[in-house]
Structure prediction request, 142 residues.
Amino acid sequence: MLSENQLLNHIYQTAEMGQEGIRSVLKYAGEPKLVSALNSQLAEYEKLQNAAGSLLHARGEPPKGLGPVTKASSEVMSTVKAMADRSPANIAEMVIQGSTMGVTKSLRTIRECDLRDEGIRRLADRLLKTEQANIEEMKRFL
Prediction:
């Protein structure tokens, strides 16, 4: 069973990974509507990460961010894929894949957590809803 702090760290890291992924493809997105959608998603991930970080600090635990190797490998993979095909459809597909992984890992983590704090539950639900909304939003660019 995972602790609520572990779930908060998962939310923190998932939001950080979402930001990393969006930043790495944003520079290749030429379509103004796609750029706008990605910037919106980036802002929501920042809010989620800040909320998780605040809750962790309130519980006396500093947030554990992503390691440099994880960040670098994500950047390299995204750059290679985006450079090969800069179309809005390809960028949208990459974002959909990232958000789908976020949903999958988050559902698993939530189910493994002994979740009692309603505020943490709401934040976890907000992360899931954000990931699902991102997927739906990106579908229009396919």
Notes: DSSP finds five helices and no strands in the chain. The domain at 4-139 is CATH 1.20.1260.10 (Ferritin).
